[in-house]
Amino acid sequence: MKSTAQNPQHTPGRAIRSGAFAVVLLAVLALAAAVAVVPRVLGGSALTVLTGSMEPTYAPGDMVISAPADRYRIGDVVTFQPVSDDPTLITHRIVAVSQGADGPEYVTRGDANGNDDEPIVEAQVMGSVRYHIPYLGHVSMLAGEHRGTIIIIAGAALIGYGVFATASALLQQRASRGRHRLHTRRITC
Question: Among 9, 59, 124, 189, which is most buried by a count of CB atoms within 10 Å?
Answer without folding.
Answer: 124
